[in-house]
Amino acid sequence: MRVLVVEDEQLLADAVATGLRREAMAVDVVYDGQAALDRIGVNEYDVVVLDRDLPLVHGDDVLRGIIDEGLATRVLMLTAASDISDRVEGLELGADDYLPKPFAFSELVARVRALGRRATTPLPPVLERAGITLDPGRREVLRDGNPVALAPKEFAVLEVLMRAGGAVVSAEQLLEKAWDEHTDPFTNVVRVTVMTLRRKLGEPPVIVTVPGSGYRV
């Protein structure tokens, strides 16, 4: 899942990004509304975690920009305002969900995951394919009923492949969905991660390389 965190409180923004990365998400971070619009114009995000009170461009205007572009991106709006009317106003503007500050990080993760499922073709929370069971909420993977311990990026790559439902996923798409914008586009990190993932999942191999196209499960 690719997430953009837009929050002008830098310590909070960086803490949220770090936590989401530990949940096997690819996360970019910006600290003002104009930077958010710039990123949204370049990258495809499943979810934007958007503070409402932003410098340069207000969060409401960032939200309008997403809606006007007709993007499938889902928006979780954050605010320090606790008044119900503020939440209602944000939802009426087009936000998909609303979370007042302060919030429990576990709730933020659950809401981001729920929105991420809505940004794509609806799929069950627990994914099953080719003898593999992947539970994003619990961060668990089973192969034929046996637990498999995966690093966050390995988990993220496997989740992208399984959500594709057997379709081929290119290395570029994996890089887009499982890594953030600071990753070198010419790196071989995708190939190395897939190789390690294959080894951990065991025999017979379930990740197929489609020459010149990418990978599929």
Characterization of the model:
The protein is of the alpha/beta class and 217 residues long. The protein is built from eight helices and eleven strands. The chain has helices at residues 10-22, 33-42, 59-68, 84-93, 105-118, 152-163, 171-178, 189-201, and strands at 2-6, 26-30, 47-51, 74-79, 97-100, 127-129, 132-135, 140-143, 146-147, 208-210, 214-216. The longest helix has 14 residues, at 105-118.
Number of H/I helices: 8
Strand portion: 15-25%
Which secondary-structure class do the elements indicate?
alpha/beta
Q: How is the largest sheet built, in terms of strand order?
A: 2-1-3-4-5
* Average predicted local confidence, pLDDT: 88
Globally, the shape reads: elongated
Strands, total number: 11
Low-confidence stretches are: none
Give a short account of the largest sheet: 5 strands, parallel
Distance between the termini: 17 Å
| Fraction of residues in H or I helices | 40-55%
Radius of gyration: 18 Å
| Pattern of helices and strands | EHEHEHEHEHEEEEHHHEE
Short description:
The model has no long low-confidence stretch (mean pLDDT 88).
What is the topological layout?
Layout lengths: L1 E5 L3 H13 L3 E5 L2 H10 L4 E5 L7 H10 L5 E6 L4 H10 L3 E4 L4 H14 L8 E3 L2 E4 L4 E4 L2 E2 L4 H12 L7 H8 L10 H13 L6 E3 L3 E3 L1
Parallel strand pairs: 1-2, 1-3, 3-4, 4-5
Antiparallel strand pairs: 6-7, 7-8, 8-9, 10-11
Jot down its keywords.
217 residues, alpha/beta, five-stranded parallel β-sheet, four-stranded antiparallel β-sheet, 8 helices, 11 strands
